[in-house]
Amino acid sequence: MSVPVVIVSGMHPEPRSALVSRLLARHPGSVAIHHDLREVSAGRVGRVVRDTSGTLDLREVRLAHGCVTCTVREDLVPELLARAGSAALLIVELWDSVEPRTVAESLARHEDTAGVLRLTGVLVALDAARATEDLCRDEPLAAHGKHAAAGDGRRVAEVLVRQIEYATHIVVSGAEEEDVELAHAVLGHLAPTTPAEAAGPALPAVTGAGIDVEMLGARVDPATARLPCDARTGEISTVVWHRLRPLHPQRLFAAVDELITGTVRSRGRFWLATRHERLLAWDAVAGVVSVEDAGPWLVTLPEAAWEMESPARRMAATLDWSSLLGDRVQHLVFTGPGLDRERILRLLDSCLLTEAEILAGSDVWAGYQDPFAAVLGLREASA
């Protein structure tokens, strides 16, 4: 019988550690493992193993290469396997800025864990007041001492969003009712299908069936993401833009700053006239935007090649399908306080090709100047 493993992540150490302690108390015989990555860039990691009685093991682990992936491969997996024979539940408490997806997929796909460990959940613990503030922080992790490797250029808001959107369950702590209510309102927009509850006696179930990391990844991957719907909760709004014309690259590029100003989060998939066959991913948090090539639109592939795509990818394409364009679509969502819905929609609509430009055809579109080419070219070269 495989041993259940639950991952607990979170940017805020106090509520994260408290959630782990509650899980340990609820499940007798459980063990928690935590890696302190403050010195990972020097190849040193502190590992703490504890149960309800206190610390069972505390030691420094030296790695050949200082990174999260190395920590999982060289120390976390062996430690989990070593304790699987005696533990009723294994809890992986992640360091502040570690994104749970990397760890979840490493555990699920490791050749030695099959039949021995089963991943049953990915929880994120949040401090209500700090969460709403951190979602607006565009500062680098290093400025807060939370970077997870040398040269870690990620930002606070970016990592917190990844933790929230990947989780299977969210637990919110807070002394002030107003903070908790605001945090729940924001979470209802960022991760509307993920259960979220205030910290209390109730705990998520973590000893049941294993979760499917492929489906979990599909929830957040740009080509298959389950994007939020139009919604408004108090001052928080989510605006959805869905169109079936290609975008003019120069007009969209000129509109980027205005589009992300005032939004906490925006994401989705879009279609540039100059890249007629490529699905592009839009990802922006706290005023910092990323645009990436996410692969071909399925309509551009021979039908036989569809079988090589994941079921989630084929389903997403089917839902977006139109007889003229296949799965090509503009689908972007913007979330933030006090958003002007009509202004966002007008601005995006002004970036679409006009009727005359549409009639000119894709051969003409290919000759448009493309300001995104430099960014996408850099990402393609580094892939």
The termini sit apart by 39 Å
Counting DSSP H or I runs of 4 or more residues, the number of helices is: 13
Specify the overall morphology: globular
Low-confidence stretches: 378-383
Give Rg in angstroms.
22 Å
- Percent of residues in beta strands: 15-25%
How is this structure best described in words?
- With 383 residues, this protein is α/β, with parallel strands linked by helices.
- It has two domains: 216 residues, Rossmann fold (3-Layer(aba) Sandwich); 152 residues, CobW-like, C-terminal domain (Hypothetical Protein Yjia, Chain: A,domain 2).
- 34% of the residues lie in helices and 25% in strands.
- The protein contains 13 helices and 14 strands.
- The strands form two sheets. Strands 4-3-2-5-1-6-7-8 form an eight-stranded mixed β-sheet, with helices on both faces. Strands 9-10-14-11-12-13 form a six-stranded antiparallel β-sheet, with helices on both faces.
- A hairpin with a 2-residue loop joins strand 12 and strand 13.
- Helix 2 packs across helix 3 and helix 4 packs across helix 6.
- It is globular.
- The two termini are 39 Å apart.
- The C terminus is likely disordered.
Question: Concise description?
Answer:
The protein has 383 residues and is α/β, with parallel strands linked by helices. The protein has helices at 13-26, 68-83, 100-109, 128-134, 156-166, 177-190, 213-218, 249-260, 311-320, 341-349, 355-360, 362-365, 373-382, and strands at residues 3-9, 31-36, 44-51, 54-62, 90-93, 117-127, 169-173, 196-198, 231-233, 236-243, 265-270, 278-285, 288-296, 330-337.
